[in-house]
Amino acid sequence: MEIFGIPHQAFLGQLLLGLVNGTFYALLSLGLAVIFGLLGIVNFSHGALYMMGAFAAWIMLDKLGINYWFALLLAPLAVGAFGVLTERLFLKHLYKLDPLYGLLLTFGLALITEGIFREIYGVSGQTYNVPELLSGATNLGFMVLPNYRAWVVLVSLVVCFGTWYLIERTRLGAYLRAGTENAPLVQAFGINVPLMVMLTYGAGAALAGLAGVLAAPIIQVNPLMGSNLIIVVFAVVVIGGMGSIMGSILTGLGLGIVEGLTRVFYPEASSIVVFVIMVVVLMIRPAGLFGKEA
């Protein structure tokens, strides 16, 4: 059986690969959108936080004997704590300045973090095995679905839409949005806005750390894994609309699938298709597909 002249297993395999990549794009761009939408910080260190999440899981397993399931909880918390420390030491001084200052600072932090990990672990990469419970694959009849990749898609979708619901549909989310719009007014009601801001940045960092743990069994854990991905993720955020949480989720998933299908029909363009789409979208709608016009 063929789909558009291509064996159906090859077609569906690339479609699945695109969906998996799309969930990583969605999860990482979600963290970027949360930080930019609520704090106005263009966080260029997000790729380094993603890398740190993967390394935290690997170190926990290799040095401490902590398995994947505990790492799935502990590694994002560790990366989130690092994010909180970064916000308290550096970023809190930049909120009233041009966003360019935050971009330059986080870009510098990303280079420093990547350099430290390269010095300690090199660039050859470390292997992180798929947990035994999720090893193997399931035959669906029309294709063979690797269990771990199905798990990644499921967890990413739950986290992404759960975060959107928390920010857009709950009282806590309303406090967060109000605190970033008019902090003095919100503080007058007894709400600790600086604490909310600090925890928001930590939560965005933790989302990147979670993506790193999920990615560890799929790709080799190495210091360059974040820098190789962050440029594409920024393109996803720009296409979806800077600060738009739902836009980042839907655009990340959609572009991952488009990238996977491009590998089927025109492999040479698979590495640039996201940027081509970004150029077209910015020409038609500069604020992005889901962004608000200035």
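(the above was protein one; protein two follows)
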Amino acid sequence: MLAFHSFIPDVFSSPLVLACGVFDGAHCGHQALLARARELAASRSAAAVTLTFDPHPRAVLLPNEPLTLLTTLTQRLRLFEELGIGGCAVVNFTPEISRWSAAEFVDFLRAEFPRLRGLTVGAGWRFGSGRSGDVMELRRLVGDAPHLEVLPPVIYRGERISSSRIRRTLATGNLAEAKIMLGRDFTLAGAVIKGRQVGRTLGFPTANLAARVPLPNGSYAARVEAAGASYPAAVYLGRRPTYGGDGEILVEAHLLDVDIDLYGQEIAVRFIRQIRGERQFADETELRRRIAADVEEARKTINN
């Protein structure tokens, strides 16, 4: 039910302050919550850790409504560590857990974390079957111990920063606005798969990922991070309409001025700016000419 990821030794045997949430994106709102958990932990001689859920509860509760996540679990764990969190407990979210009452969820926390000294949650956090528990119910159930702090939302341009808002922003291709709310460039991570070698035959070899991406199809300037190195890249996202447009959406990253085999490696694609939308070209000659222009535009964007 629980998987424990320690970023510092023996963290889960210490007194704990627990920051609870899904934390998809680990955006600026989440970062404020985690920062408060660290402060509260320091004041109580405790360690700050997170409690998160995988798979995303919506994927279990609404399986017919696919949700494009901003981060993988691996990305979230890495971001937690970078943000100074001592460890993360991951709840394997199942239909059974989704039926727990709010009281059962709090009982679960007390049983799993007997040295729990504090909780931090966002003001809009809901828990328990049918999202029946809110922060007022949490205060009632928790009582005087552990100490509970409810963080107000972080506001940007008059609206709460949330994972769903960032997804909507990315869906318009507005990477600059998404970056402000995320506190970093939107980044896609995954293992490189074998493609159809179309890019190589055109003179632009690519490292390919198969992933759901909350961005419109098209070409992007990006950086690819692999094996401790960072490479400027031109990235195509789409279904290759020039070749029929069938099959799954692929992310095809062409590294600028270097040709290395990344097959099977875990890479991260950090999107910087959209160059153009997806287009169907008359033939490979026209496509090759357009890719060359995309590469040069990506180079200018990254060098500026």
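Reviewer note on protein two: Residues 185-303 form a domain with the Elongation Factor Tu (Ef-tu); domain 3 fold (CATH 2.40.30.30).
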